[in-house]
Specification:
Distance between the termini: 54 Å
CATH class of the largest domain: Alpha Beta
Largest sheet: 6 strands, mixed
Structural class: alpha+beta
CATH topology of the largest domain: Cytochrome Bc1 Complex, Chain A, domain 1
Mean pLDDT: 95
Order of helices and strands: EEEHHEEHHHHHEHEEHHEEHHHHHE
Number of helices: 15
């Protein structure tokens, strides 16, 4: 398999600040195309929390040229696929299809993101859909606990708010509020168009020049830094059967040179069935079905930690074993054998992900958003190979400083 490389990657910045980036892959017959806007939860005021996600839904509801049904049919009639996602810092609309249908897919997404109708009748109908989505999250402790964890560790910052919003904020949205937010943030300087697959870069540039007519001024983003507060233990009661726990903290974001080392530390501890926590908590002691580390990264910061679920009887013991593994990695240098194994795991996971054009498109766009350049796979491999056991030991001691972790426990109301 061919890895990403500089020769296949092209970028053009057009007047107004919009960037067009592409990666040509000659041996496949398909593409993944993304329209990215650098706007998300972090750019919302408190009373409008969830509006970025609401707009993501609303652009599928129709334009002057296309009804909601026609938007779907125009893509699916050619065997294509259309979807979108919202994060706390970005919103992406993307499509996949056969190479010959790229112009059609481009035209549909360009129409959606630029000319949505935002009719109040559609807003009211979608309100019910999104409230159902919110309730699904609230019914799923495995998902809800991560929102609660970031609410705690990012307290006082917009990163603490959930992507979907709250019932109060969602219910307050109307056509005027949505239109105003869309106009301010869906502008050329905030936009990147990216494609990976059998794509022609010059064709992408031509389509952009022809079809993208957004304004050239965007609302000024005021992304404040997260405070350095520390938090101890927090407990939340819900109507659930299991105990769900997160033990973690704020850590290094995309912009930090320590981030790749943090990924490696996370992999040693809790990614895969050969990881230390999986082996010690689940395999040797049989105390949990689910245990893994996670890193939710943003530009300047991340939420890092361990998540596990178990029964009430085993919860304290499982956390005790987890904390012992933290102590061990802070005091005993990782062996050369384990370090080699984990490095190969990381490199293999990354390379396997490149067999999917959507993953490749997302990866190269994230590079541009967070690093303002393309980072080739070989560069990442070289950096992984260069990480030493001593660096992991030093990082672990920094990350797991005494009393620096927040423990969030979600348990049954019956046990409260």
């Amino acid at each position: 398999m061919q890895l990403q490389n500089e020769q296949n990657f092209q970028i053009t910045e057009l007047p107004g600040g919009i960037k067009v980036i592409s990666e040509f892959i000659p041996y496949i017959e398909s593409f993944s195309l993304g329209f990215w806007f650098k706007v998300g939860t972090r750019d919302e005021i408190k009373k409008h929390n969830g509006i970025s996600h609401f707009i993501e839904h609303m652009v599928f509801k129709g334009t002057k040229k296309r009804s909601a049904r026609r938007i779907s049919e125009d893509i699916e009639s050619f065997g294509g696929y259309l979807n979108a996602f919202t994060s706390k810092e970005n919103t992406c609309y993307y499509g996949r299809g056969l190479a010959k249908h790229l112009p059609k897919t481009f035209d549909v997404i360009a129409d959606m993101v630029q000319y949505p109708l935002f009719r109040n009748s559609d807003v009211k109908k979608e309100l019910g859909v999104i409230l159902d989505e919110l309730r699904d999250i609230e019914d799923n402790p495995e998902e809800l606990i991560f929102d609660k964890f970031e609410e705690i560790i990012f307290e006082g910052n917009s990163l603490s708010r959930p992507i979907i919003g709250t019932e109060k904020t969602i219910s307050s949205f109307n056509s005027d509020i949505i239109t105003d937010f869309h106009k301010k943030h869906y502008a050329l300087p905030n936009m990147i168009i990216s494609a990976s697959g059998k794509v022609n870069h010059d064709e992408l540039v031509t389509l952009t020049q022809k079809l993208i007519k957004l304004q050239s001024k965007a609302a000024k983003q005021k992304r404040e830094a997260v405070s350095s507060k520390r938090f101890g233990e927090v407990a939340v009661s819900r109507d659930i059967a299991q105990v769900h726990c997160i033990l973690g903290k704020k850590s290094y974001g995309y912009s930090s040179p320590e981030r790749l080392k943090l990924n490696l530390l996370s992999t040693i501890l809790g990614e895969g069935s050969s990881s230390r926590l999986f082996q010690s908590v689940r395999e040797r002691n049989g105390m949990t079905y689910q245990i893994n580390t996670f890193i939710n990264s943003y530009h300047d910061i991340s939420a890092f930690g361990v998540y596990l679920s178990t029964n009430k009887t085993n919860a304290n013991k499982a956390l005790e074993i987890t904390e012992k593994e933290f102590d061990k990695i802070c005091n005993i240098r990782v062996s050369d054998r384990e370090l080699r194994r984990v490095k190969e795991y990381m490199k293999g996971s990354m390379i396997l992900g490149l067999e999917n054009t959507s993953n490749r498109m997302i990866r190269m766009t994230s590079n541009m958003i967070y690093h303002n350049r393309f980072i080739g796979v070989q560069e990442i491999i070289n950096k992984i190979d260069a990480i030493t056991a001593d660096e992991i030991l030093e990082l672990a001691r920094d990350v797991f400083k005494k009393d620096s972790l927040t423990k969030l426990t979600m348990f049954s109301k019956v046990d409260a």
